[in-house]
Amino acid sequence: MSAALNDGLPERIKDALRLVIDPELGYNIVDLGLVYDVSVDDSGEARVIMTTTTRGCPATGYLKDGARDSVEATAGVTSVDVVLTYDPPWTPRMMSADAKRHLGIAEGEGW
Question: What CATH number does the domain located at 3-88 have?
Fold first, then answer.
């Protein structure tokens, strides 16, 4: 893969992942804090480490499939591996300020 195509690829992948909306919360998985890491090697193989809000979340398959499909559609990606983890466990503190506002959560509220 050319260096020019790989430049900014992790950020472009995160932008693509913002198209995946959690069906229960109605907001994208990146700003909800469900995407822990995005990495890409020199050959364009992407790896996304993500979580769900709870173990046994009924939307787990939907979210993983959406993440995979979004990353696969990103120019420069040759393959993708979506890894689900619960370490560390997700908390509302992981959400962006925009996601908290969208959900009506005030900054600094004790969880």
Answer: 3.30.300.130
